[in-house]
Amino acid sequence: MDIHTLTRELQLDNGSKIVMLVADGLGGLPMQPGGLTELETAKTPHLDALASLGVQGASIPVKPGIAPGSGPGHLALFGYDPLRYLIGRGALEATGIGFELQPQDVAIRCNFCTIDDQDRITDRRAGRISSQESAPLAISLRKIQIPGIEIFVEPVKEHRFVVVFRGEGLGGNVADTDPQMTGVKALEPVAQNPQSQKTAEVAKEFLRQAKSILAGHPKANFHTMRGFAAKPQLPSYQEVYGLRAAAIAVYPMYKGLARLVGMDIVGNAQSLEEQIDELAANWDRYDFFFLHFKYTDSTGEDGNFSEKVARIEELDSVLGRIQKLNPNVLIVTGDHSTPSYLKSHSWHPVPTLLVSDCCRPDPHSTFNETTCITGGLGHFEAQYLMTLALANAGRLGKFGA
Predict the structure, then answer these.
(1) What is the rounded CA–CA span in Å between residue 227 and residue 393?
(2) CATH 3.40.720.10 fits 3-84+234-392, yes or no
(3) Mean pLDDT of all residues in 274-293
């Protein structure tokens, strides 16, 4: 019996409310031995007050030692085994902007990048080009034509855009072209199985034409392709948990993740304060709320320790507004760690805090990586966070006689 078979049998509807606040890439590391992490450095009075009321621990997104992408990290938080439910980033990005994927589609998340006169990547994100500048460039790629393939190109946000290939015989198992470093050329799209060979050839031709169209732009003169993916099938939150679920996110990818598990996308907030406004406005309509905060991740990837500290403090500042809504369960966590020291996602367990009126509080009165090591939740796989949330909300019945 898998966990969703169990939650289907045990789910109860008692009107309780659950809020899961995900600070993307929350976990960190000191910049020097013996130093403090970003979370330990930040002034977080609201989080520390909640720590006195709740129970904390360290969640493992996939398995020990595995650094997850945002897709697996969030799926685990949503209670889906990330090793069973494999979703490519392209499908997430496309779904996040409201694109309805069809069975013959392969979606790819693309990043504008900068290359030099020898085709070596000098900036993997084209200077984090603005949405206003990147959208027309993405739209310009709609002129690309490949016989037998219908092509859709949609702007997303900043340096990101989505490409969808639609046609017969396309598989979604193609390697990324982003080498994940600068000073080298972009990789060729390579099929990982025979069923995806046609997709790889289509991608090569798309890249060839795109390079010609983008030539001459000072920053975004090429692009990489990541997360080739066909349309996935996942059971919904309503099915497996009996929850009316809402997602309040700024970035399309995270809206896509939420939509794939049956959450409604609420509002069009563009800031953290606006997200809390949406939470309050929709409080009576839903049982579960997923709030996503991106900037603890992007600052970590940039290696900007002080800015990540500032973003954690920004997150802390809105917790009082959430508490005033009196959720039955409030969870603060991350989908993975993104230490500024490493400038990348890492394998380190993620600080996780759960507060309810029936949790068993541990002795801690602060919330950070160090306290989480000895917190009452211990080290646990993130895919079980939802069952903990449901139990603390009184939404799971007894198993067995």
Answers:
(1) 35
(2) yes
(3) 98
